Amino acid sequence: MPERNEKTMITYGSIYIITKDFEKSIAFYKTLFEKEVDAQNKTRFAIFHINGLTLSVMNGSFDMEHPDEVITKGEYSALYDDMIPIMQAPNCGKVVINLNTNDLKAEYDRIQTLQIGSNMTKIRYINAKNPYYYFSLKDPDDNTIEITGDCNCDF
After folding, report:
1. 151: nearest Cα among 136, 137, 131, 130
2. Which of 5, 74, 83, 140 has its CA 20 to 30 A from that of 56?
């Protein structure tokens, strides 16, 4: 094993979601983030950079539908490599994509007016040591999006 002079660290790369409907998910995130895709590989993969967060969208059926466009090497692992069952599995909400805004009420009104996502909550408040305002909604693949921020809200 080579000797290391510097400490090797794991750093953040990207969070990516595996989607059933690539175009619908791209449209959702373009509208949510109010920006175009930063990079895209055909209809297989798209990347959004948002203030230090990299969120990517992967088309769960692309590799199966276009096997001639994908080269793989190394041992195959159905658990991680077979995107079809991953894409079709129920989303139980164990992962939450948390986003922040400087005006939660304005963002809530904007998203409500756009009518994107589903199951949008009202703005809520919790204080387990620090005040925390947020609302949640689901993206087209039922991923939970939580949006937090400052709010001059009356409850």
Report:
1. 131
2. 74
